[in-house]
Amino acid sequence: MMIEPIKLNDVYPWGHNLAEYKAIFNLDDMDLRRPLVGFADGTSSVNSELTQLGRKMVSVDPIYQFTKQDIDRRLNDVMAQSEQYWRGLPEDHRQQAIAIAGSRVKATKTFLVDFELGKQQGRYLPTALPGPFAFPDNTFSIGLCAHFLLLYDYYGLAFHIQAITEMLRICNEIRIYPTLNLHGQKSFVLDDVVNHFSSNYRVHLETVEYGFQGMGEEMLRIGGGD
Ligand SMILES: C[S@@+](CC[C@H](N)C(=O)[O-])C[C@H]1O[C@@H](n2cnc3c(N)ncnc32)[C@H](O)[C@@H]1O
Fold it and tell me: Which of 105, 148, 176, 213 to mutate to test the pocket of ligand 1 (most atoms within 8 A of CB)?
């Protein structure tokens, strides 16, 4: 499948935070002390939060080609659209949607404060999967990919195999969440991805304590171990 270059109007600045990534990926303190890379990290605040803790993370996402002002403006547009949508919801759903959005906006604002400095420091790279990436083999211990691979299964199996092969070249292991697609069904590419990489890597489907908003409680872990 041909991947179109990303446009500003395609950007949804709705980020997750470090506490959520820890739950999503079963990350423990030892994991967080290792060099990490986040693929499709978007406006998540994880890189910013880990940097403040003195840890090392690089984030990769095509939206990092845009400026802080571009992404901030887009955040305001998306907020305005969402507020219009929330008005039509029953009260309890509206309150729930507002609370979730509050957390996503907070993460995005934390990201935005850090973005320009992080870009200068090479922590936010404006590159897209499937790569290739300008890193030597095994640069990172763990590669994380939240809410992109497997979820957008319409990108197809060839895209997934190419992307994951490149991720495994630069990472000792990778973790992908969720294993469901946008319709809440098992990702159509999951079985073929598992079969493809099982011949050369340890591949596990692992339970996680996240399972938020119908995204399921399972992540895919490839590589790592002995
Ligand atoms: C739903 S967001 C998830 C953001 C972040 N991982 C999180 O959980 O908060 C999906 C992200 O995938 C990014 N994306 C889209 N196409 C991509 C590609 N080809 N390579 C890497 N990231 C891509 C988008 O820019 C967006 O930031």
Answer: 148
Give SS3 for 223. Answer: strand
Tell me if 218 CB under 6 Å of ligand 1: no
Q: Which DSSP helix (H) or strand (E) runs through 86?
A: helix 68-87
By alpha-carbon position, which residue is closest to atom 23 of ligand 1? Answer: 40
CA of 28 to the centre of ligand 1 (A): 23
- State pTM to two decimals: 0.95
Which pLDDT value is given to residue 154? 96
Decide: 114 in ligand 1 pocket, CB within 6 A.
Answer: no
Q: What is the CATH number of domain 8-66+119-223?
A: 3.40.50.150
pLDDT at residue 88, as a whole number: 87
Q: Give the whole-angstrom CA distance, residue 6 versus residue 226.
A: 38
Tell me the CA–centroid distance for residue 61 and ligand 1, in Å. 6
Cα–Cα–Cα angle for 7, 13, 19, nearest 5°? 140
The per-residue pLDDT for range 153-191, each reduced to its tens digit, is 999 999 999 999 999 999 999 999 999 999 999 999 999
Which percentage of the chain shows pLDDT scores above 70?
98
How many CB atoms are located within 10 Å of the residue 226 CB?
A: 3
Cβ 152 under 6 angstroms from ligand 1: no
What is the pLDDT averaged over residues 204-212? 88
